[in-house]
Amino acid sequence: MDDEKKLQELIKKATPLTEASYYILISLKEPLHGYGVMQKVDELSQKRVQLGPGTLYGALSNLQTLGLIEAVGESGSERRKLYCMTESGRMIAEHEVQRFEELARHGRLLMGL
Fold first, then answer.
1. What are phi and psi of 52, to 5 degrees?
2. Which of 6, 28, 59, 93 is most deeply packed, by most CB within 10 A?
3. pTM of the model
4. How do beta strands 80-85 and 69-75 pair?
């Protein structure tokens, strides 16, 4: 199976991402633990997207199952699990950015903005 077909299958299986999952995924460009992800999403969304622990860890589990993120070790004395985006995760994040740009472009066009 060629790379393009694998990518299309991954896109079909993994997208569209929810807003929370999208923010979590892009937050994991560099390794972070769960609380760090919550802080990063809070910062990126200017506190508009608030993640509770259940939402966060459910989304982390789902993203991991899809192969978009992976556990990459532990940090600190509390031994917090660190997560990071995979190459598949990077491709899905790029796909979602392009999809959002298309949505915004069409909205601006149709709304006369």
1. -85, 165
2. 28
3. 0.91
4. antiparallel
